[in-house]
Amino acid sequence: MTKATQTPMTTTSVDVINARIPGYQGLQMLLVNRQGIIEQILPMGTVFKRSPAEKLQVIDVVGDWISLGGVDLQINGALGLAFPDLNSENCHFLPEISQFLWNVGVDAYLPTLVTTSVENIQRSLAVIADFIPNQTTGAQILGVHLEGPFLNYHKRGAHPAEYLLPLTLDAVKGILGNYAHIVKVITLAPELDSTGEVIPYLRSLGITVSLGHSQATAAQAQQAFALGATMITHAFNAMPSLHHREPGLLGAAITNPHVMCGFIADGEHVSPTMLQILLNASHGEQGLFLVSDALAPLGLTDGIYPWDSRQIAITNGTARLLDGTLSGTTLPLLVGVQNLVKWGICEVETAIALATDAPRKAIAYPTISPHQPANLLRWHHDPSTQKLTWQRLLPNSPVKNPLSRTC
Predict the structure, then answer these.
(1) Which residues are catalytic?
(2) Does domain 13-67+369-392 have CATH number 2.30.40.10?
(3) Residue 221, pLDDT score
C-alpha cells in the first residue's frame, strides 16, 4: 500500500459519529487513532471498548457525508505550470501545486503529460521521478498519466499534430525510457496498433491503458479491452459520438463491466443531459469517475495564458485555444461533484464517490477503510438549494517548507 504524504495530526483519538459514508448503509462511526489512521468503521450503536486512559475527542457530524479526499487521474498543471514544461528550474512549483491541490480537497493525483516532444516528456518524467520519493506534504503524486503522443490525428483535439507518434512497441519504449515505473496510466488510440502488441506490453509493466483521442469502432474497442485496456479518457470528448448502428468506443466501454470511464463535469465538455444518460447507463460510480482535466491556469484568474507554443483563453473556468478549440478547464476536481448535485443528475452519495472512491478503484488504490490515513472530508448538503459544501474534517499537519531538496 502506498503511504499518503499528509495525514491528520491529532493529540487524541477521534470518534466521528453519525456519519454517512458512500458505499455504507445507514449511519456509521469512524474510529481514528492518535496517528491519524482509521482503526474501524462501525454502524452507529455498535458496542466497543476503548482504554480508560485513552484521550478521546468525539465529532458528531449529524448525518453529513464523510469521504476521503479526491483523486484526480487527469490534471495537466496548476498555478501557471504545465506538467510537460517541468524542468530543473521550475520544479520547485511541485510542492506548491501539491499543497494547493490538498487545499482544494484532493488527496492524490496523476500529473498528466499531454502530447509534446519526446525530449519534453523525458525531462518531465525525470523531474517527477525525482520528486515522488522526497515528497512530504500535500496531495500525493501517485505516478504519471501520459495522454499521448499515440493519438489519432483526426481526434487529436488541442494536441499538437507535429508531436504525434505511431503506436509501435519501439515508439512506446522510446517514450517510457527509464521511467516506466512511474507511469500509472497511458491514453492511446487502439486503432493505431495493427500488431496488437502494445497494450499487453504496457499491462506487463503495470500501466493502466486508457483509450481516448480515438476513432475506434466498437469492434476495435472490444479487441483493445480483450487485450487489457480498462479505462476511457474523458468520455464523449475526442471520440466518435454514440450512434445507434455504430456505438463506437464509448458504447463498447459503457457495456463492458470491466472498463471505467473518466469524465469532466464542468458543463462545457459534456452537457448535463448527456452526463445523466452516461450515469444511468454506467450504474453510477461502478463504471465512471470524475477528472478535472485542469490546465496550468488552475488556481489563477481568467485570462489569456501561454500553452506550449500557443495561447489559451480562460473564461469562467473553461479553456479554449484562440481558434475556439476546447482544450480543458481550470475548475478543481470537487467542483465537478458540486455540479452533479446542483444539476440534479445524481444522488449526493454517488457524486461524492465519483471523485473519491471511483478514481481509487480505477487504479486499484485503497478506498475508505480501516488502516487508511483519515484524510477525511465532511460534506454538507442543503436539499432546499442543492448546494453541496465540503471541508477537511481533522486538523492537518502544519504546512512547512515541503522539501529541503525539491529537485
Answers:
(1) 293
(2) yes
(3) 97
